[in-house]
Every structure is written in structure tokens, then in C-alpha cells.
Design a protein that fits this description.
About 50% of the residues lie in helices and about 20% in strands. It is elongated. The two termini are about 15 Å apart. The longest helix has about 60 residues. It folds into 3 domains: about 160 residues, GAF domain (Beta-Lactamase, 2-Layer Sandwich), CATH 3.30.450; about 70 residues; about 120 residues, Histidine kinase-like ATPase, C-terminal domain (Heat Shock Protein 90). With about 375 residues, the protein is an alpha+beta fold. It contains 9 helices and 11 strands. Helix 1 crosses helix 5 and helix 8 packs antiparallel against helix 9. A 6-stranded antiparallel beta sheet has the order 3-2-1-6-5-4, with helices on both faces. The protein has a 5-stranded mixed beta sheet with strand order 7-8-9-11-10.
């Protein structure tokens, strides 16, 4: 995450997913309340910290607290037990909080006011991306029992699963909306634009034959108005397509879904890690590469399965399109693939064939620097 003053789209999407899961009436929140109440409100406090746009966390859900200090508390990565778990993406606990050397102690005054003696925290993760931290503090002393640690881990896993379901539901909805937007824009382009061109052409012909000057001026005005409307329609279509290229995940998923419906070939999209926010040029280049490569699978392959895998590395985005058909003896890129490769090359990236004699099928991979 970046330090922008306004959250980026992918941060907003993630927060939307998390807040939906932690709705006060949700089963997960009620379960979390039971964790606190089972031990008695005087002996336990629990909270969920969610990401903020600056790259840290903010506590948004607290149960069993004695003071208002925990509500909306900002936590930077690595600070305290919650920040430690957020940074290391693994469960951690301290059985003597005040003396714990494995964590920092910026919030000692708050923990002391809450009379918490020991704490345990677990990450809320999706595809290796940490989207929050669940923390439970106990006001009594003693080691955490194995069943307590397992209980917290299970609750965190259930929460993460719910987050994953919420994210997939959102992605499916975004992909469906993208397909519908494309369909409408194509219908406008093919229908309204063609009709406006026909009207403009016929008006021009009538204008040339008009003998009456007043009629000629009216026809000329009509021509200008038709041209203006045509320009507005083109701008609308362009705007729809431009706005459709801000969500790479939805774009790839929509392209794969369309390919599967069109061809009957079993196809899936796999996303390894959270996809970063990319500029329009990179999104368009990736989507063009995926669309053209899948089209080649449709035309030139006997494949029964295909997959598109997008993975984020520290300095690049890798997208691989694979199918289970036989590898051709010689690959001759057509105009479509050549054009897609040129786009990627302009961004400093590359397109290559995965040469692995031990692998079944055929894979083409694109790399684009971030």
C-alpha cells in the first residue's frame, strides 16, 4: 500500500470486503463476541484491526473493552503485538505482555489501562495477502492453553475464508458488469454509430442537391448536429472502455469467462497474491495479451482445458496462458500476438514461450515490470 491521501481502488475494495464480513450482525462478529463472553467480559478483550490507506492498521471492532482508548487506534506496521502479526503474517502470543521482548511497547499505557496481562493475535489472510489482524487480550495470568491457540487460529481461518468468499463474489460481479458494459458499448457502436453515419451521409447528399438557400442552411446545421451527437457517442464508448480497464482482476476474469462461454473449453483464471493498481497502458497490454493468446487456443489448438495465471513478484507482473493441447513444432506469431507483444515491449516487458519438455501442454508467458 502507498501513502496516498485517498485510498486506491484495490484498497477500497479490500476494505469493503472486510467491513461486510465484520458487520455487527454477522455470524463472525457474533462468534467473536462469544469468545469474549465465554471468558467473561471482565477477563477478556478482543479487537480486529483493518488496513488503512497509509499502510498501517486501524482498530475498528472492539469487544469487551473497559476504556475508549482502543477504538479507532492507529497502529503502524510492526508496532505492538497487532502490528507485529501484521508485518510477519503469522500467529504470535505473549504471556507476559509488559515484559515481552518480541514486540514493541508503544501502547503500554493503553494495555495497562485495559488491565491486559497476556495477548494472542492471528492474521486474516487471503492468498498470502494480510487484510487484518484478530487480537485477543486476557486480563488474567498464565500460559495460553493449546486449545485456546487452536481456537483463535480456527476463528482467524474462518474469518479469512469469509473474506475470500466476499472477494470472489465482488470479483464475479465486477467481471459480469464488465462483460455487460462491453456488450452495451458494442451495441451502441454497431447500431447507433452506424445509424448516425447513415443519417450524416444522406443529409450531405440532400444538402448538395438543395436549391433553396434556407433549406441548404438548415441541412448544414443538421449535419453539424449529427456530427456532434456522433462525437458524443464515440466519447461515451471510449469512456466506458477506459473505465473498464482499471480493474485488472475483473478484466482477466471477464476475458476468461467470455472465452469459456464462447468455446466450451474449460478455462479458469488463477490469481497468486493481490494484484497491484496498474496504469491503463499496462492493464490494456495484459488484457490484450490474454485475449489474443486465448483466441489462438481457440483457433489453432485441440485443447480441452486452458488457464490464465497472474502472479505478482517484487518487481514485475507475470501472466501465463496455458492449455493442455500439444505444443506446435514452430510458433509463428500472427498479427494479433505480434501486436500484443509490441505493446508489452513498449512497457519494458517481454513475451516468451515456456520451453519445458517435461510439461504437458503449451504455455506462453508475459512479463511486465512494475
Amino acid at each position: 500500500m502507498t501513502g496516498e491521501s485517498v485510498p486506491s481502488r484495490h484498497v477500497l475494495d479490500a476494505l469493503l470486503d472486510i467491513r461486510t464480513v465484520f458487520d455487527p450482525r454477522s455470524a463472525l462478529t457474533l462468534t467473536l463476541r462469544e469468545v469474549v463472553q465465554a471468558e467473561g467480559r471482565q477477563t477478556a478483550v478482543s479487537w480486529v484491526a483493518l488496513p488503512d490507506p497509509a499502510g498501517g492498521l486501524v482498530i475498528e471492532h472492539v469487544l469487551g473493552q473497559r476504556t475508549p482508548e482502543l477504538e479507532s487506534l492507529d497502529i503502524r506496521q510492526g508496532q505492538g503485538l497487532t502490528g507485529h502479526v501484521f508485518a510477519h503474517a503469522s500467529i504470535h502470543w505473549v504471556e507476559e505482555y509488559a515484559e515481552a521482548a518480541s514486540i514493541t511497547h508503544e501502547f503500554d499505557h493503553i494495555i495497562e489501562a485495559e488491565r491486559v496481562r497476556r495477548m494472542i493475535a492471528a492474521p486474516l489472510s487471503i492468498e498470502e495477502e494480510v487484510l487484518g489482524v484478530l487480537t485477543v487480550g486476557r486480563r488474567d495470568t498464565g500460559p495460553f492453553a493449546d486449545r485456546t491457540i487452536a481456537h483463535i487460529e480456527q476463528l482467524a481461518e474462518r474469518t479469512s475464508l469469509a473474506l475470500g468468499i466476499a472477494r470472489r463474489s465482488r470479483d464475479n460481479a465486477a467481471a459480469a458488469a464488465l462483460v455487460e458494459r462491453r456488450r452495451i458499448s458494442e451495441e451502441i457502436h454497431d447500431g447507433v454509430s452506424a445509424l448516425l453515419f447513415s443519417i450524416s451521409s444522406r443529409t450531405e447528399k440532400v444538402h448538395r442537391r438543395a436549391a433553396d438557400q434556407d433549406l441548404a442552411r438548415e441541412l448544414e446545421t443538421l449535419q453539424h448536429e449529427v456530427a456532434e451527437v456522433s462525437g458524443m457517442v464515440q466519447d461515451l464508448i471510449h469512456g466506458w472502455h477506459a473505465s473498464a480497464t482499471t480493474d485488472l482482476r475483473a478484466e482477466i476474469q471477464g476475458t476468461v469467462d467470455d472465452f469459456r462461454r464462447r468455446t466450451g473449453i474449460d478455462a479458469i483464471a488463477v490469481f497468486l497474491g493481490g494484484l497491484p493498481a496498474l496504469d491503463t497502458a499496462r492493464v490494456e497490454a495484459v488484457v490484450r495479451f490474454v485475449a489474443v493468446t486465448l483466441a489462438n487456443v481457440e483457433r489453432h489448438s485441440t485443447a480441452t482445458r486452458a488457464s490464465v495465471t497472474a502472479a505478482v513478484l517484487p518487481d514485475q507482473l507475470t501472466v501465463a496462458v496455458s492449455n493442455d493441447g500439444p505444443a506446435p513444432p514452430r510458433v509463428r506469431p500472427g498479427i494479433g500476438l505480434t501486436s500484443a507483444e509490441t505493446r508489452i515491449a513498449r512497457l519494458g516487458g517481454s513475451v516468451s514461450i515456456v520451453d519445458d519438455d517435461a510439461a504437458d501442454g503449451f504455455t506462453i508467458r508475459a512479463r511486465i515490470p512494475l
